[in-house]
Amino acid sequence: MEENKLARKVKSQNTVSVNTESSSRKFHQTSGARFNMHSRISFILYLLAAFQGCYSAANHHKKASSSSSYSVVFQVTGNVYPRGYYHVTVNIGNPPKPYWLDIDTGSDLTWLQCDVPCIKCLPAPHKPYKPNKDLVTCIDPLCASVHWPETLDCKSSKDQCDYEVQYADHGSSLGVLVKDWFPLQYINGTVAKPRLAFGCGYNQEVHPSMDPPYTDGILGLGLGKSSILSQLNELGITRNVVGHCLSAQGDGFLFFGNELVPSSGVIWTPMSTTEIEKHYSLGTAELYVGGKTSGVKGLSIVFDSGSTYTYFSAEAYKALVSMLMNGIKGKQIYNANDDKSLPLCWKGSKPFKSIQDVKNVFKPITLSFAKSKYGRFQMDPEAYLIISEHGNVCLGILNGSEVGLENINLIGDISFHDKIIIYDNEKQQIGWAPANCKKLPNINDDGDPDHGGLCKPYGSNLDILQAYCAA
To answer: Rounded CA gap, 60 and 57, in Å?
Structure first.
């Protein structure tokens, strides 16, 4: 009975108070996708020219001490090509049901396709989530966070919290915020059952030229208060640290908390909360190719696991392509203009089988960060090239200016290959280190992930022990 009431209310909101055409919460739109494969750009373009909101790191440094020894790990499934996304399985509800969520550090809100009923739901691996009667109200601070940077006008304290998220690739979700149980198993085997807020999405859209990801929704891991990570930290469930490790061969792992952070070998760079608010910005960087400067400096860099590829601004992209083209002259590699997998592809005398076939031709790309003396993010050929289904090698770095990103440079999944990436919101720093992402770091009794030996026999959310460790 309660569900029917919610359904009627949501449908009413959709026609009365939620006007997707007139809403002022609009983001820059992209030009149409220029390639046939699925490619996400999750980046939410808030107000890039002039921010009116104020963000403080202090908001994300609460109740951490009570959860210093508790971390949660998930097995990641997916790849950059041809699938175009990575997801984890998250259990939600009581009794809990599994849902596949696209991991996204480029946005805050977690949402599921929702049957209230669903006006437009995309193909998905599981039936749409059926909400309970626990609605987030309009006056809840989480609702204000979802609507930032707009000022929320609540007509009544009992009003539900509607949301609309639009992504730079034209994807969107429209719905209402609800709360439900998120049972999580720590790596020490104990279980937490927090009640968290997320979006119940009853109207989803994707660009006509794109294949929608085969998931149930998005796992938002951004900086805002509405993100799952921030909510877990506020409740004292985990530290405000998230990390991912994506394998170039596909799959990997995701973790909340600090137990899987390597004790050494990590390159740390301060977060920049003034450059691009509410995103994982690392400030500005200079672009190098094969150890030689491109002459392009001051590139605003954002890490975004919700984007399949990496996107450079027009100047950087042009310089990069020019240097790569100069580097392959005389190497029996030619433009493959008939391959539409990505905007720029090359072919050889015979089809390429792997990146190893061209690794001696393409040079490493490096971003040198201005705020960090040793802050250099290196992308080897595996971290910016793909082998298409036609056996050609294609550039997985695209021109962000052509898709509405302006001067923002997004580092996406392809460039995270075979690195552990750590977003430490408590210390306001982002770190990375080379890693074998097909295997979890070993954890000894002292919680040191660098210690050798067999995998520690701990439980997990997805039987991750069986996936990564020998029986």
So the answer is: 6
